[in-house]
């Protein structure tokens, strides 16, 4: 490829604007929301009622919270050329663990106010972290392909969950638990705070430590990164650990939302949603280039899509089909083979600059 | 080893030229392969050997010139086409399927059939026959991977013959073979020669060339230096033709910068080696000294560099850094100890193309600092700008993606990366290979300056010229062992003699 | 006699050093059966084993197609969804539009093959990861299935009911049509993998795709055909499933892809491709079915132990495969 000679900074501001990595995801989200606003008046309205902020926009953010969390975890795993398809199973497992722990502690310490909640969260997140660690060790120490390694947990995870739940859906009769998903803090739903904390914390970690640079280096060129002294093993392990944790947090939120844990159905097909959110957000599925903000927007796009389909009155099953088509489109667009094919057809299209 | 009286020309390439994005890979090259002859193609890395082979085998097409086979003009555009024309190639990395059986590899794509299904009995019988032609008698049902590389190569050769080749190109076939296996391979090559096959033998092992070749063509910098009869070309002359002389630059070293004789030893290795890659080697580098590692491709220079840097684990020997024993498990250990390595394969092991120049420059320093402490953006920019200027890296800005720079500038960026860590010992593996003259000069000047400031440098290069000009001492490697050390003021002849080996050792 | 010689040649051709790979799943199956027979009365009755085939016929058919995909080093996660789509489409065509079952079956088979071929084309032409492409295909198929019908559609067409009730006596037990179809598919798979250039190209690609290409093998068309084959097998499995359940439902075969992959891996096929046997997949499926049967016979263990057991077996075999792969490169590099 002929290198572009002009500096990025001297190109016309429009091209620079368009080349911002978040441009396309933000545009898609904006178009979706605006489209909704046009066809469905009142869609974008926000009301303040009973000390809470209500509206479709808040709703979308709230419902998207579990997916956003998992997508953030998946972003980092994909960035180091990995993949974690066990997130749905881990979600179900942690939901079950949380609910089960709650009922156990509740029974043992009747009347205690927040102890069951504390125990539930601790237990759930510990199990989630162990799952992530398990995956990471299989990939880094045993050297298994990520798909294979995480496949094992994907198969066994729900089995373990069902074992704990005895095959039943565990119902939670404990008010504080529901707060995690349905409660409001300072007028906004609590899950938004969870997402904000995790996102901001992660961004801070990436920006203010060398982890962002190391992750990119490993993903783009693991050999050169190694020669430069980057210890890939520990970093890759950490990404799987965090991915497990994020699935755990999502599991707690999901079960808190319905005050129950369904080991069979919770998190079903979550893996593809997460992968889709990550790729829509502009991260490369082949690793290296990643964007946490992009994945967040990607998850919001998916949730908006779901809400749109529901609001418009289309059958919710269409969701799956639309998502599938989206995945195909994004993947083909990201493919280098496709881009060279397009360039061969349209020689006047200059695709020199990488965003 | 006598060539037929007037052997017929099977493959004739004339005026072959090829350019890649600004640099000339081949320029007016002529090659003549004759039936019943083993013709060696020799040249250093970057001389154009692999480009020429890719051309003949249809991987790429020539910009100019023509190739004729048995008098007919040919221009294969895919490897399969070349094979169909009768040009078969056996590569160093045996291009067969290791999981399939030997018999299958020989017959893949052209199975004999019975009632529409593959006739396995015929396959096994046929493959045993073909292997007999190369003197091999093995169990053809076992997977190819269970056999040594030597046997795998024979199978590849057998497959090539099976598809009725006129020309057999062997690309570095002996690099992974031991002495006994090499002799077996030569037996097969001689047998095929008697059968009238035109064989092109690409290698960098001088002894082997003389053992089995009838003719030798030497390439250097994309041009043909000459075609010689093996009997009429003494070894030193061959080496001279291969490494030749570069554009005349300032001769001799600046004597001001010679290191003190009792300068502290920065790194010393005793009996360091790795099975199959490097025999036990002793080496020492002092502060402010530029130690050169000379030798041809395959002599073990890069293997030594990798061992010194902790990229490979040594099986034997000891490494001391500044007097203390060091156990390097990972490059990060080496970096922490103040070592630095500019690798030979800058594209795959050096530059990270998708990161910016700035990010590439600060990477090694950052790994030394750990993951918690970071350089601020301002510090990064200052460091990158300073080094970019000091080394004369031609880039629009430090935010440009490293992959968009030219080879020479990429090399400078990798060098900048390591200079940022202010190492005690800088290992440079072929830093000037494949880059333009100006960048070469810049890099060499920088090396001299760094040594003057007290850095120890290990300078690996196949260009004797450069080594002579830069180094205070020169260690010479041949065929994976160190064969001698010469002081900086020695002559080119002495180095060549060590590289070529003793005159009486023509095996 | 010619036939005898052909059979001898067949056996001779199949007699390769990689017997060991087949011996493990076979041995495991026999061992489990024997141990189970000791603990649980009535386990070693012929009908119990026949039921293994009857109950897992659709899994077996799917797994055979999946074996070919995995042998090339790829993977197909859409198989369960395609089964569901097949059942729903069949049911809808037969029950709601009055089609004859055979016509519906033909359409379904074509659709499955076509879907597979499209995925294979995307994977091959644009060098996309098979995992993500087939995962999206899974979404697509499930989505289409739910679009056709959210609820389950019962099938009561006399032809289907009749075929579903046929029992074929064999070796002291009786098999359903589905089980017989499954056995035929296994046999065809063995022939295809071992005795056709397509099958051998599949193995070659799994071993080293660049080498296979340099050797002149038709890599591109083989990859596309392999996914088309998997789609066909999934659709056929859907036909058998519809016969078995006499209904079409978009939530059928949920999670089946994992069972199929587990069966293929336990049967000795490397997930990295290049090594494995279709016959091994047969034993892999039988082992999975036997686990379920053992748990049912026991009565004490909950059935979700099946999932855990499968996960553990999968882990064991994957680790084993890692160890084997690590040892192999010692002989000669490539």
Secondary structure: elements and pairs:
The complex is a heterotrimer of chains A (355), B (507) and C (334).
Chain A: H1 13-19, H2 23-39, E1 46-49, E2 52-55, H3 56-79, H4 87-108, H5 115-140, H6 146-165, E3 170-171, H7 175-182, E4 184-185, E5 188-189, H8 190-208, H9 211-220, H10 222-227, H11 232-258, E6 260-261, H12 270-280, H13 292-312, H14 318-334, H15 336-345
Antiparallel strand pairs in A: 1-2, 3-6, 4-5
Chain B: E1 9-20, E2 23-34, E3 37-42, H1 49-56, E4 64-69, E5 72-74, H2 79-85, E6 87-90, H3 102-107, E7 113-114, E8 117-118, H4 120-133, H5 149-162, E9 167-171, H6 179-194, E10 198-202, H7 206-212, E11 215-220, E12 223-229, H8 235-243, E13 265-274, E14 278-286, E15 290-294, H9 301-309, E16 316-321, E17 324-325, H10 331-336, E18 339-342, H11 346-350, H12 357-369, H13 377-391, H14 407-419, E19 425-429, H15 437-452, E20 456-460, H16 464-470, E21 473-478, E22 481-487, H17 492-500
Parallel strand pairs in B: 3-10, 3-11, 6-9, 9-10, 15-20, 15-21, 18-19, 19-20
Antiparallel strand pairs in B: 1-2, 1-4, 4-5, 7-8, 11-12, 13-14, 13-16, 16-17, 21-22
Chain C: H1 2-14, H2 19-39, H3 46-71, H4 79-96, H5 101-125, H6 130-148, E1 153-154, H7 158-165, E2 168-170, E3 173-175, H8 177-195, H9 197-207, H10 209-214, H11 219-245, E4 247-248, H12 256-266, H13 278-298, H14 305-327
Antiparallel strand pairs in C: 1-4, 2-3
Helix pairs in contact in C: 2-13, 3-8, 3-9, 3-11, 3-12, 3-13, 4-5, 4-6, 4-11, 5-6, 5-11, 8-9, 8-11, 9-11, 12-13, 12-14, 13-14
């Amino acid at each position: 490829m002929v290198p572009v000679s002009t500096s990025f900074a001297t190109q016309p501001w429009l091209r620079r604007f368009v080349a911002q990595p978040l441009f396309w995801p933000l545009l898609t989200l904006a178009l979706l929301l605006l489209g909704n606003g046009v066809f469905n008046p009142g869609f974008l309205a926000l009301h303040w009622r009973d000390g809470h902020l209500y509206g479709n926009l808040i709703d979308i953010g709230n419902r998207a919270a579990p997916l956003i969390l998992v997508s953030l975890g998946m972003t980092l795993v994909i960035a180091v050329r990995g993949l974690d398809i066990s997130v749905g199973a881990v979600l179900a497992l942690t939901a079950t663990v949380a609910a089960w722990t709650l009922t156990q502690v509740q029974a043992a310490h009747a009347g205690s106010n927040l102890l069951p909640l504390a125990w539930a969260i601790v237990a759930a997140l510990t199990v989630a972290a162990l799952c992530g660690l398990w995956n990471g060790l299989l990939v880094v120490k045993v050297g298994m392909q990520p798909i294979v390694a995480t496949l094992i947990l994907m198969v066994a995870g729900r089995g373990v969950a069902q074992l704990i739940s005895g095959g039943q859906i565990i119902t939670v009769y404990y008010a504080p638990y529901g707060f995690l998903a349905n409660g409001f803090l300072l007028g906004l739903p609590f899950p938004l705070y969870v997402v904000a904390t995790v996102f901001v914390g992660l961004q801070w970690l990436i920006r203010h430590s060398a982890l962002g640079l190391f992750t990119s280096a490993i993903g783009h060129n693991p050999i050169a990164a190694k020669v430069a002294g980057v210890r890939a093993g520990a970093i890759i392990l950490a990404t799987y650990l965090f991915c497990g944790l994020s699935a755990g947090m999502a599991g707690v939120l999901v079960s808190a939302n319905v005050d129950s844990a369904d080991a069979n159905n919770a998190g079903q097909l979550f893996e593809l949603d997460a992968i889709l959110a990550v790729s829509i957000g502009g991260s490369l599925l082949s690793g290296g280039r990643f964007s946490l903000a992009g994945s967040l927007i990607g998850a919001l796009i998916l949730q908006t899509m779901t809400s749109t389909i529901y609001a418009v009155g289309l059958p919710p099953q269409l969701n799956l089909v639309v998502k599938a088509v989206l995945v195909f489109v994004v993947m083909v667009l990201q493919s280098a083979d496709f881009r060279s094919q397009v360039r061969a057809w349209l020689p006047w299209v200059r695709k020199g600059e990488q965003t | 080893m006598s060539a037929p009286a007037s052997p017929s020309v099977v493959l004739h390439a004339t005026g072959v030229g090829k350019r890649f994005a600004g640099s000339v890979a081949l320029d007016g090259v002529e090659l003549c392969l004759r039936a019943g002859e083993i013709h060696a193609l020799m040249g250093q890395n970057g001389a154009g050997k692999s480009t020429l082979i890719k051309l003949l085998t249809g991987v790429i097409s020539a910009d100019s010139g023509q190739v004729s086979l048995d008098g007919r003009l040919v221009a294969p555009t895919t490897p399969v086409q070349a094979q169909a024309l009768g040009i078969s190639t056996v590569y160093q990395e045996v291009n067969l399927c290791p999981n399939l059986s030997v018999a299958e590899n020989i017959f893949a794509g052209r199975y004999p059939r019975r009632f529409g299904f593959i006739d396995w009995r015929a396959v096994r019988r046929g493959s045993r026959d073909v292997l007999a032609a190369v003197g091999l008698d093995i169990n053809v049902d076992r997977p190819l991977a269970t056999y040594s590389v030597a046997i795998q190569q024979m199978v590849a050769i057998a497959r090539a013959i099976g598809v009725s080749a006129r020309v057999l190109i062997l690309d570095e076939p002996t690099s992974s073979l031991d002495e006994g296996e090499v002799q077996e391979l030569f037996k097969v090559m001689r047998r095929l020669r008697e059968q009238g096959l035109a064989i092109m033998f690409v290698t960098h092992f001088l002894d082997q060339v003389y053992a089995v070749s009838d003719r030798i063509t030497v390439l250097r910098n994309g041009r043909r230096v000459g075609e010689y009869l093996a009997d009429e070309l003494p070894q030193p002359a061959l080496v001279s033709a291969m490494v030749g002389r570069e554009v005349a630059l300032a001769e001799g070293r600046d004597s001001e910068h010679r290191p003190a004789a009792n300068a502290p030893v920065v790194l010393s290795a005793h009996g360091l080696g790795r099975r199959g890659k490097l025999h036990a080697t002793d080496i020492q580098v002092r502060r402010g000294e530029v130690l050169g590692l000379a030798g041809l491709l395959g002599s073990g220079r890069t293997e030594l560099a990798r061992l010194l840097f902790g990229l490979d684990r040594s099986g034997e020997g000891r490494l001391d850094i500044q007097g203390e024993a060091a156990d390097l498990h990972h490059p990060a250990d080496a970096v922490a100890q103040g070592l630095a390595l500019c690798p030979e394969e800058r594209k795959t092991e050096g530059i990270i193309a998708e990161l910016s120049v700035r990010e590439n420059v600060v990477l090694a320093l950052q790994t030394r600092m750990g993951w918690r402490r970071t350089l601020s953006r301002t510090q990064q920019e200052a460091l990158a700008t300073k080094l970019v200027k000091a080394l004369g890296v031609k880039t629009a800005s430090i935010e440009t993606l490293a992959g968009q720079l030219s080879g020479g500038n990429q090399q400078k960026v990798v060098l900048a990366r390591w200079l940022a860590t202010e190492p005690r010992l800088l290992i440079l593996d072929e830093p000037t290979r494949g880059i333009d003259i100006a960048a070469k000069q810049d890099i060499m000047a920088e090396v001299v300056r760094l040594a003057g400031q007290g850095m120890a440098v290990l300078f690996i290069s196949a260009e004797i010229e450069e080594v002579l000009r830069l180094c205070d001492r020169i260690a010479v490697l041949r065929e994976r062992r160190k064969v001698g050390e010469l002081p900086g003021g020695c002559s080119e002849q002495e180095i060549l003699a060590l590289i070529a080996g003793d005159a009486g050792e023509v095996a | 006699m010619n036939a005898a010689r052909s059979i001898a040649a067949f056996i001779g051709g199949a007699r390769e050093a990689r017997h060991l790979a087949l011996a493990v799943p076979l041995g495991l199956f026999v061992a489990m059966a024997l141990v189970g027979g000791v603990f649980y009365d009535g386990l070693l009755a012929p009908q119990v084993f026949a039921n293994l085939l009857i109950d897992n016929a659709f899994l077996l058919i799917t797994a055979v197609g999946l074996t070919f995909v995995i042998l090339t080093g790829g993977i197909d996660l859409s198989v369960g969804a395609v089964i569901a789509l097949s059942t729903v489409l069949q049911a809808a065509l037969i029950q709601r539009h009055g089609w004859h079952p055979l016509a519906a079956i033909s359409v379904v088979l074509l659709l499955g093959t076509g879907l597979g071929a499209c995925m294979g084309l995307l994977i091959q032409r644009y060098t996309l990861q098979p995992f993500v492409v087939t995962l999206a295909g899974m979404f697509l198929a499930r989505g289409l299935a739910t679009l056709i019908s959210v609820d389950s559609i019962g099938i009561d067409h006399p032809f289907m009911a009749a075929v579903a009730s046929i029992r074929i006596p064999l070796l002291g037990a009786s098999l359903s049509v589905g089980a017989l179809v499954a056995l035929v598919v296994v046999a065809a798979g063995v022939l295809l993998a071992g005795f056709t250039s397509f099958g051998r190209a599949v193995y070659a690609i799994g071993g080293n795709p660049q080498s296979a290409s340099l050797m002149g093998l038709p890599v591109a068309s083989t990859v596309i055909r392999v996914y088309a084959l998997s789609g066909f097998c999934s659709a056929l499995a859907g036909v058998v499933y519809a016969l078995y359940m006499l209904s079409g439902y978009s939530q059928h075969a949920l999670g089946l892809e994992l069972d199929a992959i587990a069966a293929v891996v336990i049967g000795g096929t490397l997930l990295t491709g290049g090594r494995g046997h279709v016959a091994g997949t047969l034993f892999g499926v039988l082992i999975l079915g036997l686990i379920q049967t053992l748990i049912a016979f026991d009565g004490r263990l909950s059935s979700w132990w099946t999932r855990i057991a499968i996960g553990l077996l999968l882990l064991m075999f994957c680790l084993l495969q890692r160890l084997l792969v690590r040892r192999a490169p010692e002989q000669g590099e490539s």
